[in-house]
Specification:
This protein is mainly β. It is 4% helix and 42% strand.
Length: 128
């Protein structure tokens, strides 16, 4: 990520520690028009995935649904928490009203464009 990154994670507080969750791995790609996030959320179905944008905060939450087959009981589980959660603070240069989301095979892709005045533009040169 460059020094101009448009997205950052807020510091963890007592309130966020109280609701412990798994942190899904997230790749953030920035270009001149905005940012794209790719979050890995294995075990989460579309109906258990929740995205929220409030003011300058983006929250990704997903509940893991890994039921044991009928008649069987788990004797060991390495996934002790059943919720993924990531919270990001959005830059004022990003247009939170135009977030687009796609979810395919456990991978969430979010596209957040920059506001028009923050996008790079070419300045025409007049001859004269």
């Amino acid at each position: 990520m460059s020094d101009n990154t448009q997205l950052r994670q807020p510091a963890q507080t007592e309130a966020t520690r109280a609701t412990e969750a798994l942190l899904p791995p997230v790749d953030v790609i920035e270009d001149g028009a905005g940012i794209t996030l790719h979050a890995d959320l294995p075990g989460v179905s579309r109906d258990r995935l929740h995205l929220h944008v409030e003011a300058d905060t983006l929250t990704i939450e997903g509940e893991i649904a890994l039921p044991a087959p009928e008649g069987l009981e788990s004797i060991h589980s390495e996934v002790g928490l059943s919720v993924y959660r990531r919270v990001f603070t959005l830059s004022k240069e990003l247009d939170a009203d135009r977030v687009a989301a796609e979810f395919n095979q456990g991978v969430l892709t979010l596209r957040i464009p920059k506001v028009e005045h923050a996008q790079p533009r070419r300045i025409p040169i007049q001859v004269g």
